[in-house]
Amino acid sequence: MGRFILLLNIPRISIAIKKGLKAFYYTYILLIYDIYTKGRRENMHLSVSLTSGEPIYVQIKEQVKNQILTGQLQEGELLPSIRNLAQSLKISVITTKRAYDELEQEGLVTSVSGKGTFVSGSNKESIREIKYRALEDQIRITIKESRNIGLTRKDLLNLVTILYGEENES
After folding, report:
1. If you average pLDDT over residues 119-124, what whole number do you get?
2. Which UniProt keywords apply (predicted)?
């Protein structure tokens, strides 16, 4: 049973009892739906900010991508359905679909009609490429900053050699 939805249903039961039988049936249907969606990743930790200036679909895409790259989401793992994620984040289904579509274009997830969206099993090269590009960007920033403080190429390479050696020792 999805932990996130179950937590949302607990208050609904007390509200249902207060409002009558119709609300109780609605809550009961949600509980059955939770059992039906067992195995889905309903408890993903995603948050969106309406004031950040960054589009919501980009925020979702980047957070899911980060969870895939760090191994929090394993290959073959089923992601929340587009509707469930939209409902839990209180955003449009279109926004969630756009985030999932972009993740699919990057090769990080695969959508199977009628089954859901899964972390792609063939994304090892894609993940390596993304990490490599991110590392290149960090190195470019480091080179620029080292030039700003007057380090020569040799000084920077010596620093990297020393730090790399320290990392391998620990």
Report:
1. 75
2. DNA-binding, Transcription, Transcription regulation
Total Cβ atoms within 10 A of residue 99: 26
Predicted TM-score (pTM) of this structure: 0.57
Alpha carbon separation from 33 to 3, 26, 47, 89 (Å, rounded)? 13, 11, 23, 18
Q: How many CA atoms lie within 13 A of 161 on its CB side?
A: 6
170 pLDDT tier (thresholds 50, 70, 90): low
Tell how far CA 95 is from the center of its chain.
Answer: 14
**Of 12 and 112, which is predicted with more confidence?**
112
Most distant CA pair in the chain, distance: 76
Residue 45 makes CB contacts below 8 A (sequence gap 6+) with: 67
